[in-house]
Amino acid sequence: MGSGWRKEILHKMQKDFLYFLNMLRYIIKKTTSVLLDGQTPDTANLLDGGINNMSILQEGTRKLLSADFHAESTLPALAFSLGAKEKIRTQLDEDDGLFVNYGSVDSVYPYVCQDMYDRAQEPKEYITVALENENLRAVFLPEFGGKLWELIDKRTGQNLLFSNEAVRPCNLAVRNAWTSGGIEWNCGFRGHHPFTCSLVNTAKTKLDDGTPVLRFYYFERIRCAVIQMDLFLPDGSEFLFVRTRLTNPNDDMIPMYWWSNIAVRCKNGDRVIVPANQTYTTNALETAVIKIDVPVHNGRDLSYPQNTVIAHDFFWKMEPKKRPYIAQLDKNGYGLCQTSTPRLRGRKLFVWGDSCGGRKWASFLTGDGMDGAYDEIQAGLASSQYECLPMPPKTVWEWIECYGAMQADPAKIHDGWARAQQEAEQILDCRMPAVELEQWLEKTRRMAITPAELILPMNDGWGALELARREKMGWKRMNPQLDFGQIGQPQACWMRLLTEGTIGEQDPDEVPRSYMRQREWMEMLERSVAQKDWDNWFAWYLLGTAYLAEEKNEQGCAALKRSTELQDTVWAAYGLAIAYERLRDREKACVSMQKAYDMRRNDIALAREACRCLTKNGAPERAVELLAHADESIRQDARCRLICAEALFQLGRAAEADKILCGEDGKHYLVVPDIREGEVSITELWIDIHKSLGERDPQPPEELEFRKDVRHAEWG
After folding, report:
1. Cα separation values, 687 from 579, 606, 659, 692, 695, Å
2. What is the DSSP annotation of 362-400?
3. Are residues 657 and 645 in contact, defined by beta-carbon separation less than 8 angstroms?
4. pTM given for the model
5. Whole-angstrom Cα distance, residue 103 to residue 386?
6. pLDDT by residue (tens digit) across 509-545?
7. N or C: where does the chain have the smaller number of CB atoms within 10 Å of the terminal CB?
8. Right CATH number for 55-455 from 2.60.40.10, 2.40.50.140, 3.30.1050.10, 2.70.98.10?
């Protein structure tokens, strides 16, 4: 009999013994609590439900240090790019089969940004839902996209994840707000998804044996897809199960994207084990996708995260005949392991690196004085994050992934690459055989299409609106097992468009909160302005901004001009400024943006945009003048101050610009809460200022160093 069989038998004996002990402990605890209440214990119920009752679902709250998110932006997301235009080249072989650049999205419209947060750290209660059995406790945050915030191995007391004890949003996601830590479920398109800092529908149900199931779901408006996740922790299981169901209910193929983003504490001596001998990454200038051998490249073993100096992504080229998994294990061979059914094929390692900028970003995302050192192991549909996969119409994709602790022989894990892989695979095959995962996927298929009890609705109404549109068209109801709630105020105008052919009226002073880019709704809106809404400023405004979101800049400009002719509004003036910028009419862009700001001078989002537009388009003196006469809240806004420093530098007033960045004493550095990942404007501005002041080789202070790398030729 081989060693694998011996391990399996021993492991089963251990599980059976632990099960017996926990069962006995449960009965004693339950009986004692009942007797103390002066009641007669219901022995039949106790024994019949003993197994199921050991796996529980608990609703609660958790107090965390938190920034204040304030309100969402008042403006449509048109002024910034998600990076789709900067297409990455490929230096791969034809048989690598990557869909590089497919499905990229340049604008997050119709969503609005969430970048009005600050850097405060005040205690705040957040809703939690926990799944627990005798081995694991998993704590989720529904208000952050259903993020798995904490996964405790109860046998060791260790948290298998990096859990950020502070909610400190930064600009790393498509809506400009993201928090580090835990496991995030990214779906739809590249980048952290639109609901990463928002509540998603939260429900509960059960498996056939009574095991509680936690369900997260929502309707995603850019892909017009439905995302559903069912999570459960069976009795005796050493793994948390995550069953994902993606639905394309449309008549057209859509690009689809999924990555489970797993943050783990980064410790010296950690090793990442994955069934791969090559990885996709980028060249030194991050302009092309290349392929390199692993684990050793240029004399460095890249399976040890601490050996990577600069912030970098590694997308492992998985061996096709191997089951997909990824594990990060410490020097003692202990850590987190993730595996899945074959559809979730991709695996990734992200490291911040050991450069000053990488360390800066890791700490910037965490609370003051907290240890923010972490890296990410990830699992995705595609081989890399440079691509989406084509998802056919009327299609459902399903898979199961699971998470649990792994204890391996450290001598084998930290030996040669092949031996480390063999050790991890043998343990995984013993504790969670691939066939068992497939069985779980099959036997939970009926549960996944069964309604659940909605315990926390997101109340966004967009899923309900899509159901109404499909019903009007006589189409089959999408995902009948999911409760999408009721149509709310933001959807009322679109419902009127659907039923009456007109978008209806909007108070010009009221902030528009309702945008749409879905093709079917755009066609309805185009018909409305040709018929019933030809004299409706609001209809033309919505049409114009939607055109801009689709890069139809001349059409957008024309529609917004028509809106302005019908009603002079701050919203159309802002949209026109963006249109003129794109059409390279810099003076008209400045005039229109200045006009928009003058119509609504207390709006911080608009002030930021006005300062940006004026400074970028050759009118820095107007940006400085604007801020000099602005309200105090705007003058003190960190983003506005950074732009003002740039404007002052352009005007030759370097010393004044330096005081904004470094304070009057040169030691009180400007902190910009919404600085974007990869944005080095504050660092480069400081360098330019100090060069102009006569310094030969100025080195930015650590507080202002946001460059993630030093352009090492690390990958060839």
Report:
1. 32, 28, 14, 9, 9
2. HHHTS-TT----EEEEEEESSSSSSB-EEE-TTEEEEEE
3. yes
4. 0.90
5. 9
6. 999 999 999 999 999 999 999 999 999 999 999 999 9
7. N
8. 2.70.98.10
